[in-house]
Specification:
The complex is a heterodimer of chains A (about 300) and B (about 450). Chain A is built from nine helices and 14 strands. Chain A is of the alpha/beta class. Chain B has two domains: about 300 residues, no CATH class; about 110 residues, 3-Layer(aba) Sandwich (D-Maltodextrin-Binding Protein, domain 2). About 5% of the residues of chain B have low confidence. Classes of the chains: A alpha/beta (about 300), B mainly alpha (about 450). Chains A and B meet through strand 6 and helix 2 of A and helix 1 and helix 7 of B.
Chain lengths: ~300, ~450
């Protein structure tokens, strides 16, 4: 079951097409990476999903039903450019945003207490937003995004401007929300975080999705059948055919094979020759490499 | 609806709680009071300045009264004899006035010499002395020609225009009534002008602030842009009404306190004015009938004027503030660019104010009629005409056009607003705004 289905979505502005026939699905309870270079149409797409704008063509369904005006209460959106009313007090601001999402005053107060306690920031309640540091404001912004317990969370660059401690805290919160049943769309440029956190990704470029699926599958698809072996001893002079040496040194050799099974043959040969194997690993491309490769490719096509 | 209500509440309470709001709301009446006290003290101070003037009147133009010293209009004239040089050293006198004999009774020119060590004379002083001497010479010539004083007085006739109505035209408008109507009309026009500017601009600034603050993106992921815009417009309107209500109570109170403290005497103020303008105070007094004025104020058809004023107030405010919101949404941080965007909205408001000055004097001119139908002007022009009882069809037509325009402009502004608040870093032209109208949601 999918929390979100995006089908053939098109969004045109007067002089360009921001989103051009994009389709993907976000499975329930999944952390989903929405990737793409600057100006690829991510923000336009997010605005359609959050109901800020409407798609010219295509269908967006949330939890099985077509997107409608009741859905804002089920979505939590943290834009890349953070914004809060600077003059408002933390407590009243969070209650205000929670109530706009449809919570009653009592519910909003209850949730507010929960989150302030959780982050151990009860003392901020009466402080104005402008009195807080940037990192503190980020926390408030995050609470405002999740206070109404949305089914779908959309976080645009959630780690930007956070110190390592707060980055970790944010990650933990994301994982915790996931275990509580929320689905999370993460839009980011930080590929190492995508690698670490996301299970599924979609890659948007020039308004189109050029790649999507579970991270594992995507990596499989883009792997170059390379293996790295650390060893002690002397390598045999002749190696089985089908095997290309990419790099080699006295202790390490990287090979490329046509078929993954050929790596076994290579390993077998080494062992037979009495070479001591310290480690053997498959080299998978990082999301970062895939990202660059795909984006560059689509550039040359265009 | 509930969300709209939440937005209105926030927009209202966040402004009313602001220190700057509390300060301006309370300080404005106090400033007015202080200004009045200061003005009153200044007027009194000027009145206290005494001048002792020696008068050389060999030709006996001032008459042969036995009294040598006369006090008139804060000036003391003392008849002396001899030549100018005899009195120059006398510290008692500020100046010496030399009245030469009148050679030709029929001459309309007469020059009085004022000998003094002062530099340039204040225009007030010159007027005072000239008026005083004109009266003396009037008297002197009348005697010389042998005119009867009473006959002369009866030459001056005060004419009052009393309009009798024909057909359906409003009945019995006295000259007092039209003065009152002018006052009410002018005041209403002014209130509209300030409301549009003050609170419309407030809406605009706040929209731009939300946009540059980036809070707007969070907001529109929860509520519709239209709700956000309307919530702001209504919230600010309530702030305005609160402020006006507080002023309506405080200003009269402070007004009376100021009068008591400064000791401004209304008749004294008139006195001053009449001296400046050279109007005979007695004439003015015969025209001014306070009882009749008060009666005319009560005679006004307030039951019609007040509801209509409120309709025009709300209509004008809604139309202009929604346009201000649209322009505010298109703005970026570039201030000079913002100026050019607001100009087309502020121009009609200013134009309407200038038209109003002419309309209160000619409330039934064709310009007045046309301007009270054009929706950009009618919220300022029509309230200014209401006290003159314009024909019913004009009121109805004007209100209908205004309501239709409000709906149209709110719709138009909302369409620009929803695009503008999410559009960053682009230089916005009116052509661009036009395109936004046709963007799909």
């Amino acid at each position: 079951m999918n929390i979100l289905d995006v089908k053939n979505v098109v969004k045109r502005y007067s002089n360009h097409t921001a989103v051009n026939d994009v389709s993907f699905s976000v499975p329930k309870g999944c952390i989903f990476g929405l990737l793409g270079p600057n100006g690829a149409g991510k923000t336009s797409l997010i605005r359609i999903i959050t109901g800020i704008t409407r798609a010219d063509e295509g269908i967006v369904s949330l939890d099985g039903g077509e997107l409608n005006h009741r859905h804002p209460s089920q979505i939590g959106y943290m834009p890349e450019e953070r914004g809060l009313y600077k003059k408002m007090k933390v407590g009243e601001h969070l209650i205000y945003l929670a109530r706009l999402k449809g919570l009653s005053l009592q519910e909003a107060k209850k949730e507010l207490n929960y989150w302030l306690e959780k982050f151990d920031i009860q003392s901020w309640r009466k402080k104005r937003i402008e009195e807080l540091s940037k990192g503190m404001q980020q926390k408030v912004q995050f609470i405002s995004t999740v206070i109404h317990q949305p089914k779908l969370l959309i976080l645009d660059e959630p780690f930007s401007g956070l110190d390592p401690i707060n980055t970790n805290l944010m990650k933990e919160e994301i994982f915790e929300l996931k275990t509580k049943g929320a689905s999370i769309i993460l839009s980011t440029h930080r590929m190492e975080q995508v690698e670490e956190i996301c299970e599924n990704v979609v890659l948007i470029n020039q308004g189109k999705n050029v790649l999507d699926g579970p991270v594992k599958e995507v990596k499989e698809k883009f792997k170059e059948h390379k293996f790295r072996i650390k060893y002690q001893g002397t390598l045999p002079a002749s190696l089985p055919h089908n095997i290309t040496i990419v790099t080699r040194s006295d202790e390490e050799i990287t090979i490329q094979v046509k078929d993954d099974k050929d790596s076994n043959i290579f390993l077998y040969t080494l062992i037979q020759q009495g070479v001591f194997i310290q480690s053997f690993e498959e080299i998978l491309p990082s999301v970062n490499e895939i990202f660059i490769q795909v984006v560059e490719q689509s550039k040359t096509i265009a | 609806m509930e969300k709209l209500w939440l937005i209105i509440k926030r927009e209202y309470s966040s402004r009313v709680k602001k220190k700057s709001f509390i300060i301006t709301t309370l300080l404005t009446p106090i400033a007015i009071g202080l200004f009045m006290i200061a003005a009153g003290l200044l007027i009194n101070y000027e009145g206290e300045e005494q001048r002792h003037i020696a008068v050389l009147d060999d030709a006996n133009i001032l008459g042969t009264d036995s009294i040598n010293i006369k006090e008139e209009n804060g000036l003391t004239f003392e008849k002396v004899t001899g030549s100018v040089n005899d009195h120059i050293e006398n510290e008692k006198f500020n100046a010496i006035l030399e009245l030469p004999p009148i050679a030709q009774l029929k001459s309309k020119e007469y020059t009085v010499k004022y000998h003094s060590s002062e530099g340039i004379l204040g225009i007030g002083l010159i007027n005072k002395i000239e008026n005083e001497k004109e009266k003396n010479i009037y008297q002197y010539k009348a005697d010389a020609f042998g005119f009867n004083k009473d006959s002369l007085e009866s030459l001056k006739t005060q004419v009052t225009l009393d309009r009798e109505s024909i057909g359906d035209a409003p009945k019995n408008i006295s000259s007092e009534a039209s003065i009152i109507a002018t006052g009410i009309g002018g005041a209403m026009g002014f209130i509209m002008y300030f409301a549009v500017f003050l609170y419309g601009m407030m809406v605009m600034r706040s929209v731009t602030e939300e946009k540059t603050n980036r809070i707007v993106e969070v907001m529109v992921s929860s509520v519709k842009p239209f709700q956000l815009m309307m919530g702001k417009i209504i919230g600010v309107a309530l702030v305005g009404l609160t402020q006006v209500a507080i002023w309506a109570i405080l200003i009269p109170i402070i007004f009376f306190i100021a009068i008591a403290v400064s000791g401004i005497d209304m008749t004294q103020a008139q006195d001053m004015q009449s001296q400046m303008g050279g109007v005979d105070i007695k004439e003015l007094e015969s025209q001014f009938n306070p009882a009749k004025f008060v009666q005319e104020i009560f005679n006004q058809n307030w039951l019609v004027i007040i509801p209509l004023f409120i309709i025009y107030f709300i209509g004008g405010y809604m139309m202009y503030s929604s346009l201000f919101a649209a322009v505010g949404s298109a703005m970026n941080d570039d201030l000079s660019e913002n100026q050019s965007l607001t100009l087309p909205i502020t121009l009609p408001v200013i134009a309407a104010l200038y038209m109003m000055f002419s309309v209160v004097q000619n409330p039934n001119s064709s310009m007045a009629v046309w301007a009270s139908l054009v929706p950009f002007f009618s919220p300022i022009i029509m309230p200014a005409r209401l006290a003159f009882e314009p024909p019913l069809w004009q009121i109805v037509l004007s209100v209908v056009i205004l309501i239709a325009s409000v709906i149209f402009f709110v719709w138009l502004s909302a369409r620009i607003y929803r695009v503008g608040i999410l559009m960053y870093g682009k230089k916005v032209t009116f052509k661009e705004l036009g395109k936004w109208l046709f963007y799909k949601d």
